[in-house]
Amino acid sequence: DKWLIAHNTKIGEFYTTGIRLRDLASTVKERTGCDRIVIILDACNSGAAQAGGGKGLIRGANFDISSLAGQGEIILSSSSSDQRSWESKRYENGVFTRKLIEALNIVGASTPLTQAYDSLRSQVEAEVRFDRQASQTPVLRKNWQGKELAILAPPVRPRQTEPSQLASPVSSGSAGADLCEQGKQMYQKKDYKGALEAFTRAIEAGNTTALNELGVLYSEGNGVPQDDAKAVELYNKAAALNEPSALTNLGLRFLQARGVPKDESKGLEYLKRAADLNNSTAQYSLGVCYDQGLGVTTNMTKALEYYRKAADQKYPAAYNNLGSAYLKGRGVARDMKEAARLFKKAAELDDSQSMFNLGGIYSTGGDGIEKDDEEAASWYKKGAEKGNAAAQVSTGLAYWNGTGLPKDYEKAAYWFKKAADQGEAAGFNNLGTCYKFGNGMPKDMDKAIELYQRSADMGYALAQYLLACAYVNGEGVKKDYEKAAEWSRKAAEQGDGSGQNLLGALYENGKGVPRDKASAVKWYLKAAEQGNALAKSNLKRLGL
Predict the structure, then answer these.
(1) Least buried of 93, 374, 454, 463, by fewest C-beta within 10 Å?
(2) Listed residue (54, 62, 55, 64) closest to 24, CA to CA
(3) Which of 211, 209, 207, 245 has its CA nearest to residue 230?
(4) Over pLDDT 70: what percentage of the chain?
(5) Residue 223 in contact with residue 195, Cβ under 8 Å?
(6) Predicted pLDDT at 324
(7) What sections of 1-112 are H helices per DSSP?
(8) Based on the number of CB atoms within 10 Å of its own CB, is 124 exposed (0-12), middle (13-18) or buried (19 or more)?
């Protein structure tokens, strides 16, 4: 016979405290008076797993659990007959029981038992593989009759162990968690070697989050040589244990082909798993995918749904993207006031892009928002001080034009250079203009041309037009109408009115291109449609 006994059963109490496994179901039915029962059995098939002080039940070795599932009976066992049922090194719980409760938290109430079992099985297998380097697969056997059984009771939380007394001011329930928190604090202080040591020790203590954090160090090359393969390996280990940040990092890597082959389907799968675990970065990232059609068909309803979930957790960029949707009327009715409200929410969380966007709203006004140059400049400057390159350009323009800020060419040049140092095309262009006219910088046409060229090469239309003008006039370069036509065409094809007018003039006069009145008129008309005064004058001169 095989018996179910407590781990500390004495031989003299064997028959009075144990239960024959073959009689388990009938005993439960008899004592409960139920015709149909569910038995959840967390028991080990040997005493070996209790060597470390565990307090689980022990069942006879190699007992086939299938033989228990009689009519109207469901048996959910912690492991198959040839496996041990392990206790976690991290918690004073059996892995099976703890993961059963966590599985119910994930899948929710009113979930079919078989669905809960699928989630449970994968989590137990992953935890034991990580924690014990062993195998443990829960077994479900049933001979049920009638409607599929569902879990109706609300889930509860597993019991936590008492916090360990570490030197850290933060204690979150285990030595591993405390070490991980210490590592995060060191990371924020840029003490990467200290963070590396703390995360490594946290992993040794069984902390899952630390696997992800160590992966981040390898991903960024902080405190360790940069190693995408190692980062992915660590993310995979943490993701196997359903660590939300690791799932998110893997998802983004598959979408971006960073250290792994590009696989949008797999990337979205990881992000959805993380989003279901309430990871705000994953929720925001899924919003972007649906917003921009990355790996999925564009769906603004879905995008807004995920943005709102992330915003509910105060994710700044989610507020910003919701604001942009209201500003542009994408997926919602256009509402500038609501856009401003959402941008302010993000700005309060130090989101520099939202500060720039708020500046834009007050710069133009409309839809119930009064135009206010000072308010606009204030938001631009806040964004600029946070390092937003577009806001730095706009702050420079406010100083250059004296709109909302006192006219000050030196301060304008300062902010244009800040933007240029970040590779912002408009920053290069505007700094070039400072050198061209000697405003805020020493007059230096060679430097101006160099900066216009950098901006033009980045596709910035205004710089392409100004470079074309330089070739027409021989300013800082040798006169070259062919190059003037080349650069004015690039600007014109991007819709730049000044570039269109200049290209029309080159066609009219046969400079750098064959003389062609029809082409000249075509480009004059395009420029005039955008309100270009010179183009309108040229058309009038031609009698059009």
Answers:
(1) 374
(2) 64
(3) 211
(4) 77
(5) yes
(6) 96
(7) 14-17, 24-32, 95-107
(8) buried
Burial pattern 187-197, b for ≥16 Cβ within 10 A else e, equals beeebbebbbb
488 in a domain, yes or no?
A: no
Encoding tokens for residue 441? 């910088």
pLDDT in tens, 253-312: 999 999 999 999 999 999 999 999 999 999 999 999 999 999 999 999 999 999 999 999
- Amino acid identity of residue 468, one-letter, is A
* Phi, psi torsion values for 440, nearest 5 degrees: 80, -10
Between 80-84, 330-334, 459-463, the lowest mean confidence (pLDDT) is in 80-84
Distance separating alpha carbons of residues 393 and 419, to the nearest angstrom: 6
- Report how far residue 465's alpha carbon sits from residue 443's, in angstroms, rounded to the nearest whole number: 20
What confidence tens digit (pLDDT) does each residue in 300-352 have? Answer: 999 999 999 999 999 999 999 999 999 999 999 999 999 999 999 999 999 99
Whether 72 maps to a domain, the answer reads: yes
**Structural domain includes residue 175:** no
3-state helix, strand, coil in the chain (%, to 5): 60, 5, 35
488 has a pLDDT exceeding 70: yes
- The structure tokens 């001169």 sit at 541
Q: Per the domain annotation, does 34 fall within a domain?
A: yes
How many separate helices (H) and strands (E) can be counted in the chain?
25, 9
CB distance 80 to 137 below 8 Å: yes
120 is in which domain, residue-wise?
A: 3-151
End-to-end CA distance of the chain: 106
CATH number at residue 146: 3.40.50.1460
- Location of structure tokens 């269109």: 500
The 10s digit of each residue's pLDDT in 24-69 is 667 776 767 777 777 777 766 544 434 344 444 444 444 455 555 5
Lowest-confidence range among 149-163, 361-375, 470-484? 149-163
The structure tokens listed for 89 are: 């090194």
